[in-house]
Amino acid sequence: MKLTCLPEKLNEGLAAVGRVVAPRGTLPVLGNVLLQTEGGQLKLAATNLELTVVCWIGAKVEEEGAITLPARLLADYVGLLSAGEVMDLEVSGTKAHLSCGRSDANISGIDAEDFPAIPAVSGGFGLKISAPRLKEAIAQVVFAAAPDDSRPVLAGVLMMVSGGKLTLAAADGFRLAVRKVDLGDVDVADISMIVPSKALTEVARGLPNDESVEVEIAVTPDQSQVLFRHRQEEGKQAEVISRLIEGQFPDFNRIIPREAKTRVTLQTADFLRATKAAQVFARDNSMIVRLNLVPAEGGDETVGHVTVAATSAEIGDNTGDVDAVVEGEAMQVAFNGRYLRDALEALDAQEAFLEVTGPASPGLIRPASGPNGYTQVIMPMHVAR
Q1: Is the pLDDT reported for residue 163 higher than 70?
Q2: Which one, 58, 72, 190, 217, has the greatest CB density within 10 A?
Q3: For residues 321 and 117, what is the distance between their CA atoms, to the nearest angstrom?
Q4: Which pLDDT value is given to residue 121?
Q5: Which one, of 63, 7, 59, 13, lies nearest residue 34 by Cα?
Q6: Alpha-carbon distance 42 to 65, whole Å?
Q7: What would the mean pLDDT of 288-310 be, rounded to a whole number?
């Protein structure tokens, strides 16, 4: 293999695929990145056997070939090369010679034939969606997935297509986030699959904020693998291929409260600021943040308020008042401060609705405007009065 490319472009590609490299895996080749010429470009790929990330960068190819090189060493070295200068890459056997300006390096690798085969995903379900819309939808639900695999289905995100809508849902047993995206007038089959949250995080990281870019989603006929692919105008292409999680996702519609005794409308930024302040004091007290929802009492008081408070026996306490329209009964409820903060940060709306039925019932948070069909549910925390 012999080619030339710009080191900054190679560095971008290595950054895109490097996050899934398994540096201490049982197979040494999993700590490497695959470099392979394909279609007049340089293809980069990395895998941990559960998740594979592939991208293509521009290159002038003189001789076809392939090799795998240590991902971290290659990224560290290429990142130090002068931007704008052409880098020459020449492979002989399992050794690669890199030359850029006045810098030269020889790196030992592993034969490309030892690299795990990249799954081919075709012949099953297919869908195209705007890159920014998918990126936003992923960001609004993926944080609510369980961080470990003790319950595998909760470590994933449900992706369901039905009735011309794409629904993404994630839950960890303490909170739920659901986002529905209208697909418009498209003829697409219904499907339900559970995608590992780590895979969707990688997908979102690589997506541009360009409405002209579409993401192709494809699933194998046996629904064991899913592919996310997008191409940009400058010819850049990237793929994320992941296994799907087997199992039955909980019926999230049963978790969403259907009625509320108290409904609060308030400025998201003010509520978030008060929540962050309370979270500082809640760290040493199981992250308990108390909300006191107070309706207006008439007279000079034409608007209600929400008091956000947290107490730590060792550090101290904090309270913050936020003006709000409080409809219904006065109420006190407690939530996990981190969950509340995550919910508010994901809203992307100036005003938020908070709906509660009682101190022992889940709270519902959704935007007063903005993304349609976005809902979050947070389980309450039981505290001594």
Answers
A1: yes
A2: 217
A3: 57
A4: 87
A5: 13
A6: 10
A7: 85
